[in-house]
Structure formats: C-alpha cells, structure tokens
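About this split. The held-out portion is used to measure sequence recovery: a designer receives only the structure tokens and must propose an amino acid at every position. Recovery is the fraction of positions where the proposal matches the reference. Here is one held-out target exactly as it appears in the evaluation file.
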C-alpha cells in the first residue's frame, strides 16, 4: 500500500446526428486504492451501440471488482448480450484499466486503440501478452505504476478523427502522443487532458464527428488532503472545538464566509486583512490571514464553485474561466478540482440573520443544499469526501 491514487477524467463526443453515444465508461472502486475502469465501444452507433457498450462496461467492471477473471467476464458477456446479425458478434470492443492497491495497473484490451502510457512526459512501450478467449485476441499487460504516470484509453473515434476532412489517414497514435506531450508537463488534471484531446478531435472532424469518440485519462498522483470550513456552529461555544478540528487536519485550509473568517482569525490570533480588488464583479473579494491558505466570502462564492463543478462533470467549458481567474470562486475551484484528492468539509449550522431577509435569494436551507450538492459533484470527480456538521 502507498499514498498514490488515480485521478480519472472521461468524456465523449457523439457521432454527428446521434443523440446517444455508442461508447460508455464505467468506474467501480473496490477497496481503498483499487478500481476497475472500463471503456466500451459498442458496435455501430446510436441506441443499439449505446446499449451494447453500457451493458459491456457495467458487466465487466462489476465482475472484475468482485474478483472474477477476464475469461469469466468475456464469456458472460458473450452469453448475455444479443448477437449482432450483421457482424455475428455479441458485444462491444473494450479497454480495461485495473488499478490494484495503488501499486500496479493491469491493462486488458480488445480491439480498441492501444492504451497510451506517458511517464516523465515520454511515451512508454509497455510489454503485452496475447491470450485467446472465446476466439478473441485479448492483450494483457501488468505495469508497476509510478507517480505522474498517465494512461490514456481511447475509442476508435479518436484515431479516425479527420479522415476525409482534415487528414488523409486520420489522427494516428503517434500523432496523438506528440500532441499530449506538448503540454503534459504543465500538470493538468486528467479531466483537463481529456477535454483538450477531445477538443482537438472535434476540430479535426470539423465539428461533425464521423464516429463516437471517447477519451478516458487516468493520472497517478499522490493523495492531497484539503479542508474547507463554511459557516459558524449552531452553538457559539463550539467555535473553538470546530476550529481546533479544522486546523488540526493535514493539508491546505480554505475558510468561507465573513463570520467564519472572523472566528478563524480570532482562533489563530492573527489579523484578518480584507482585499479590495474585484477580479469578478459577481464574486466578493477575498481576504488574507496568516495560517489560512484562502479566505473567501461564503454563499455567493460557493454557489459559483458549484456551477463550475457541474460544468466540470459535463464538457468542462468553464475551465477557460476558473482555470486562470483570481476571484475567490476560481481559486477554490482550482484547489478542489485540480489539487485535492481528499476533502474535509466543516459546515456550521448557525442561521445567518442576513440570509433570512425574504427579499434575498439566500436562506439556511439553500446554504446546506449548496454544500451537499458540491460534495456530491466532487464525489463524482473521484474525490474522497467527508462532511462534518457543527
């Protein structure tokens, strides 16, 4: 066991004119540092392909997480799914990345583009073994993982990008590797790397993808704890205990809210200095206090972070905003989305009198929902979340 974990980012482009994607990615965790990631590419496109890929990825990921062999998984799929009358095949192609105890990656690949492995910014040619299961040639590999290793799984829509539009022979594997190598050293998250790859695919297709295109990036990184406190406790006598627990946690500390930041500065016996710069007219300025990594306003700022998190789970378009701006919401987004792997929320249950004005769109229940929704979005990003109420 070590302190490494997997940062996973997946996204897809639908074939032009199709409402459903024929590719599907399924992630199942089992144990503390183990998970199964399956990218399945259904035969054809549209509804039929979507059903095939969804069932294939769900069956394989669930069975492998339960400890069953790839042989059993493939045989189960062949017996479960209907056979295509045209191709005579009963399931989609697939790529499996099995992270075991945070120390080893097992790759199992059937007819999808070969997984790319970047280590130290360079492409690694890892060994593969070919096995025959039910007449299908399956590639298997076992790789000892290292910090900052990047695995990129693709459906065949990626190397086919640009054929007959901008490229004669498509976007070859070596071209994709060269493209990623130009910016991989910057330290982008798996989701951002995926977004950049898909944007390039879409551009090569001229905005009209000729095939379902999916990218799933897995980045191996060290665990990074993060702590965020918002709101004073319902019992004022609990302020000291709340702050003691908050500041005793390993990792960076984010304090949200005017009253909360005052309590924190008093606990630390350090002055609170409010900044006057408005980097975004809709987001109140941040503040500074020695011993705190970031001090922001409360509900308005967190609401904006929630909006960014919801977009992050979709097409990540707002990265162009929060990835570079210096307002409180953007700073929190970068800390939670890009840096943190384990996040502790400390939520004060005191009712803010200012939020009870019927003319304001903020009340106590809305504040609680904001935190709950943000925590849920962060869980979907693969973060480990703990919420404590006071």
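Reference sequence for scoring:
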């Amino acid at each position: 066991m070590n302190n490494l974990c997997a940062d996973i980012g997946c996204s897809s482009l639908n074939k032009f004119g199709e409402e459903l994607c024929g590719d599907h990615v399924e992630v199942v965790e089992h144990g503390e540092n183990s998970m199964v990631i399956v990218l399945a590419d259904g035969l054809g496109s549209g509804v039929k392909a979507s059903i095939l890929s969804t069932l294939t990825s769900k069956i394989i990921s669930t069975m492998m997480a339960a400890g069953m062999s790839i042989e059993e998984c493939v045989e189960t799929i062949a017996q479960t799914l209907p056979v295509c009358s045209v191709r005579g095949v009963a399931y989609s192609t697939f790529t499996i990345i099995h992270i075991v105890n945070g120390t080893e990656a097992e790759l199992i690949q059937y007819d999808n583009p070969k997984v790319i492995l970047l280590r130290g910014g360079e492409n690694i040619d890892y060994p593969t073994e070919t096995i025959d299961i039910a007449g299908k040639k399956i590639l298997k590999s076992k790789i000892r993982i290292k910090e900052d290793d990047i695995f990129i799984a693709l459906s065949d829509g990626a190397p086919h990008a640009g054929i007959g539009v901008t490229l004669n022979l498509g976007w070859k594997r070596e071209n994709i590797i060269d493209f990623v190598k130009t910016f991989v050293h910057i330290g982008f998250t798996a989701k951002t790397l995926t977004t950049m790859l898909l944007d390039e695919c879409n551009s090569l297709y001229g905005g009209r993808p000729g095939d379902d295109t999916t990218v799933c990036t897995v980045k191996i990184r060290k665990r990074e704890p993060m702590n965020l406190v918002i709101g004073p406790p319902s019992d004022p006598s609990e302020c000291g205990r709340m702050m003691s627990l908050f500041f005793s946690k390993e990792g960076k500390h984010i304090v949200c809210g005017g009253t909360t930041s005052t309590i924190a500065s008093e606990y630390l016996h350090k002055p609170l200095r409010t900044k006057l710069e408005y980097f975004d007219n809709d987001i109140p300025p941040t503040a500074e206090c020695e011993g705190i990594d970031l001090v922001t306003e409360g509900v308005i700022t967190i609401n904006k972070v929630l909006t960014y998190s919801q977009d992050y789970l979709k097409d990540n378009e707002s990265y162009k905003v929060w990835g570079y701006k210096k307002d409180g919401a953007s700073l929190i987004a970068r800390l939670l989305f890009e840096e943190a792997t384990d996040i502790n929320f400390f939520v004060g249950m005191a009712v803010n009198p200012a939020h009870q004005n019927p003319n304001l769109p903020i009340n106590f229940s809305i504040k609680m929902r904001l935190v709950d929704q943000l925590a849920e979005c962060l869980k979907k990003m693969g973060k480990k979340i703990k919420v404590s109420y006071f």
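Annotator remark: The chain has two domains: 4-222, 225-389.
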